[in-house]
Amino acid sequence: MSYRYMRIIVMFDLPTLNSIDMKNYRTFRKFLVKNGFMMMQESVYSKIALNQSMANLIANKVRDNKPPKGLVQMFIITEKQFSRMEILVGEVSEEYITDDRRLIIL
């Protein structure tokens, strides 16, 4: 069976002016982490999905848990497209799985 791995990327810029805004920020960030998203850089999180239908389910879950204010952007790309990302400055984090092998020994 062939799988077409997808990557969901969520980027957000949320206000943190008062205690309610801070709570919304923390709640949204905790939601992402609890649901398997990993931080790529500050306010940019990604998660791998097995196929397009799973990616759509995850995207719907993010839509259902979006904060009331601020900017939240999300897109879905194939794992092949994600692997062609060019790192211009900095180092690649070892926390991310960057290939599509079924068994990865850490």
How would you characterize this protein structure?
Strand 2 and strand 3 form a beta hairpin. Helix content is 32%, strand content 25%. It starts with 5 loop residues before the first strand and ends in a 23-residue tail after the last helix. The protein has three helices and four strands. The model has no long low-confidence stretch (mean pLDDT 87). With 106 residues, the chain is α+β, with helices and mostly antiparallel strands. The protein has helices at 19-34, 52-64, 79-83; strands spanning 6-13, 38-41, 44-49, 71-78. The protein has a four-stranded antiparallel beta sheet. The protein has a single domain, classed as Alpha-Beta Plaits. It is globular.
CATH class: Alpha Beta
Total number of distinct structural domains:
1
- Residue-averaged pLDDT, rounded? 87
Percent of residues in helices comes to 25-40%
Rg result: 15 Å
Tally the helices: 3
Distance between the termini: 24 Å
Architecture blueprint of SSEs:
Layout (H helix, E strand, L loop, with lengths): L5 E8 L5 H16 L3 E4 L2 E6 L2 H13 L6 E8 H5 L23
Antiparallel strand pairs: 1-3, 1-4, 2-3
Question: Which key terms come to mind for this protein?
Answer:
Alpha-Beta Plaits; single chain; 4-stranded antiparallel beta sheet; alpha+beta
Characterize this entry briefly:
32% of the residues lie in helices and 25% in strands. The chain has 106 residues and is of the alpha+beta class.
